[in-house]
Structures are given as C-alpha cells and as structure tokens.
C-alpha cells in the first residue's frame, strides 16, 4: 500500500518535471525564428524549379536580393565596416557607400548562394544579450560537410536584423573593416570608393 | 665609535641589497602591487583556443594591455582584459584571438570600431572572433567529413 503510494508520487513528480522541461527545439527564441523564416524563404526560391530556368535568372536574383535585404541591415553593416571613417562622411557619401557596399555583398555572396542545392541548415543555439543576439547555425551539404555560420542580429523595434555573419569563425564585418581601413590609410576614402565601384561593375 | 659605524654601513648595504632584490622580483615577475594600472573590460569568446592569462592585447600591432583572467560562463570563455587608461574602445569594436605566425603564441587583437559609445570599465566587447582552429579546418577540407 505504502509502496504504491510512493510510486504514484514519483510518477506525478516525473510528469510534472517533464511538463516544465520543454524540449530544446521549443525554446528557440524570436531571433532564431526570424532568421529561420528568411533562410526558409531563400531555400524556397533556390529550390523553385520554375525559377531555375535560364530565362528566369534575373527574376530569381531579384527575388533573392529582396528576401535577403529584408533581414539584413546593410546600413549597419556598412557603418561597422567603415568603423571610425563613417563619421567623417557626409550623409550623401554615406548613402552612396551603403549602396555600393550592398552591391558588393550581392556580387560576392548571392552568386555563391545561387549555386546552393539541397543544403540543409541546422539551428544550434541562440544567445541573447539585451537588444543583441547571436543565432548559431550550420549548413550541411550533400556530402555531409558542415560549415558553421553564426548570425549576429540587432533588434530594431520588433524586427531582428543581421549586422554581421561569422562563417567558420571569421567575421565578415571584421574582414571588410580591416581591408577598408588599410585602403583608406594608404590612400584616401575616394580610392576605396573607386575600388568598390570597379569590383561591383565586374 | 668606529665599530658602530662599520656595523651601520653593513646594515645599510644589506638593506639596499634586500630592496633591490625585492624590486627585481616585482619587476621581473610582472607583479602589479598597486593594481591601479589601466581599466578592465570583458569579452566573451566561444572558444578561448589556448589563450592564457597574461597574454598580450594589441590594437594595430601595438600592445595596449593584457589578459587578466579567463573563466567559463554559460559554456563560453569570458576573458577579462586590462587596458591602458588612454586607450578608448568603442562598443562596436571586434576582439579576435590570433596567433603570432603559424604556430606562435596567442594574443587578442582588437579592431577599433566607430560608434558613438565608448565602453566603460567592466563593459563588454560584444563582437568577438574565436581562435580559428587550423588543424580542424585543414582536416575538414582535405579529408572531408564522414
């Protein structure tokens, strides 16, 4: 009698515990959800057979760019990449720079993304720190090779926007920041704009 | 009278000797007796990758401070940096763990940012790059993963 009561109590305890400990996938927060939404949308465009036809290439690229631009804060990225030199620019120059910078990213990355096929994205972890968060993911390709990709996001009202990507431990913004500072130091800001323009036209 | 003078001279000489040895050990051991030099800020890395307390912090290759201590907090490495007072770090600065040469010692490199906010004492550098594990990278791309 006493024993069965005890086991009943234990059972109740376990049931209670399992209720409070929600599974790991359920406590993915807002930043992860929003990144996932964009990644899913990008994957949908990439896997769309209709859009894969050569004559639709332009449409596909525009679609991709729009989807990505909604989640990425190119202005913040450009500002962080220019670092200390951002403040010295006039608003018109800043605007021009942001446009050039997003074209640069588009040329370098969208073309790479376009070749992706059947890659899977696994969401690993999320770290929240006030208005900032990091969403850790990895991309797994057909061969099983996995590449860790972390998104650094910033809250703008109720939207989380990406301001840096860390691929295989290397930060995109830091890479550009080092290069831009070097170009400006050895020449001038105009040299940097000239070089970016050449790169974008190519 | 003369004897006392000699003993006094020896005593003073010995005292100077002891003080010099004390000064030397503090200087050589990089001991911070006053603990007043510089201010501390924090940086959280996903992987500390073999960096140790006492390692150098650099901006543009110039030494601006050192690592005070490293501890584990929610599965990340929280590194405490002591920086010189005249060095100001913006809150969008990026701290990276780098290696001197291919197999040299590890150090922290700060790439200065340009935001309006300067990190206060105890502030945290949010954007960090962990040590890139060369061996892991090479094996991954050379041999592929099973």
Structure description:
The complex is a heterodimer of chains A (202) and B (146). With 202 residues, chain A is an alpha+beta fold. Helices cover 56% and strands 20% of the residues of chain A. A five-stranded antiparallel β-sheet of chain A has the order 1-2-3-4-5. Mean pLDDT of chain A is 83; it is low at 13-26. Chain B has two helices and eight strands, in the order H-E-E-E-E-E-E-E-E-H. Chain B has helices at 2-28, 134-143; strands at residues 39-45, 56-59, 62-73, 76-83, 94-99, 106-111, 124-125, 127-129. An eight-stranded mixed β-sheet of chain B has the order 7-1-4-3-2-6-5-8, with no helix packed on it. The chains are: A alpha+beta (202), B alpha/beta (146). The interface between A and B is medium-sized, with 27 and 22 residues.
Q: How are the strands of the biggest sheet of chain B laid out side by side?
A: 7-1-4-3-2-6-5-8
Q: Tell me the fraction of residues in β-strands of chain A, as a range.
A: 15-25%
Strand order in space, largest sheet of chain A: 1-2-3-4-5
Tell me, what's the shape of chain B? Answer: elongated
Order of helices and strands of chain B: HEEEEEEEEH
Mean residue pLDDT of chain B: 86
Largest sheet of chain A: 5 strands, antiparallel
User: What is the radius of gyration of chain B?
Assistant: 22 Å
CA-to-CA gap between the ends of chain B? 90 Å
Helical content class of chain B: 25-40%
Question: Can you count the helices of chain B?
Answer: 2
SSE class of chain A: alpha+beta
**What portion of the residues of chain B fall into strands of 2 or more residues?**
25-35%
Summarize the structure.
By secondary structure, chain A is α+β, with helices and mostly antiparallel strands. Chain A contains 7 helices and 5 strands.
List the helices and strands and how they pair.
The complex is a heterodimer of chains A (202) and B (146).
Chain A: H1 2-20, H2 30-47, H3 57-71, H4 74-82, H5 91-114, E1 120-129, E2 132-140, E3 146-156, E4 159-167, E5 170-171, H6 172-186, H7 189-201
Antiparallel strand pairs in A: 1-2, 2-3, 3-4, 4-5
Helix pairs in contact in A: 2-3, 4-5, 4-6, 5-7, 6-7
Chain B: H1 2-28, E1 39-45, E2 56-59, E3 62-73, E4 76-83, E5 94-99, E6 106-111, E7 124-125, E8 127-129, H2 134-143
Parallel strand pairs in B: 1-7, 2-6, 5-8
Antiparallel strand pairs in B: 1-4, 2-3, 3-4, 5-6
């Amino acid at each position: 009698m006493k024993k069965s009561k005890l086991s009943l109590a234990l059972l109740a305890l376990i049931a209670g515990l399992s209720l409070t400990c929600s599974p790991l996938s359920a406590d993915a927060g807002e930043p992860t959800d929003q990144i996932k939404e964009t990644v899913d949308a990008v994957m949908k465009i990439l896997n769309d057979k209709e859009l894969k036809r050569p004559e639709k290439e332009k449409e596909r690229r525009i679609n991709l760019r729009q989807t990505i631009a909604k989640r990425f804060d190119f202005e913040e990225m450009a500002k962080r990449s220019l670092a200390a030199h951002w403040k010295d620019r006039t608003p018109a120059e800043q605007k021009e720079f942001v446009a050039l910078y997003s074209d640069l990213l588009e040329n370098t990355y969208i073309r790479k993304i376009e070749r992706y096929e059947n890659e899977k994205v696994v969401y690993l972890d999320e770290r929240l720190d006030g208005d900032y968060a990091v969403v850790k993911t990895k991309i797994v390709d057909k061969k099983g090779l996995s590449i860790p990709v972390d998104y650094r996001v910033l809250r703008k009202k109720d939207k989380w926007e990406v301001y840096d990507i860390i691929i295989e431990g290397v930060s995109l913004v830091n890479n550009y920041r080092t290069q831009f500072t070097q170009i400006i130091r050895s020449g001038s800001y105009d040299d940097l704009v000239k070089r970016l323009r050449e790169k974008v036209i190519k | 009278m003369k004897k006392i003078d000699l003993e006094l001279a020896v005593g003073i000489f010995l005292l100077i000797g002891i003080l010099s040895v004390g000064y030397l050990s503090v200087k050589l051991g990089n001991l911070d007796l006053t603990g007043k030099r510089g201010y501390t800020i924090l940086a959280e890395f996903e992987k500390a990758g073999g960096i140790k307390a006492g390692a150098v912090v650099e901006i543009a290759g110039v030494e601006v401070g050192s690592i005070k201590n490293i501890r584990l907090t929610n599965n990340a490495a929280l590194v405490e940096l002591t920086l010189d007072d005249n060095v100001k770090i913006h809150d969008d600065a990026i701290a990276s763990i780098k290696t001197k040469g291919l197999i040299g010692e590890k150090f922290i490199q700060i790439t200065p940012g340009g935001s309006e906010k300067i990190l206060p004492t105890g502030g945290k550098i949010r954007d960090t790059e962990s040590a890139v594990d060369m061996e892991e990278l090479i094996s991954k791309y050379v041999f592929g993963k099973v």
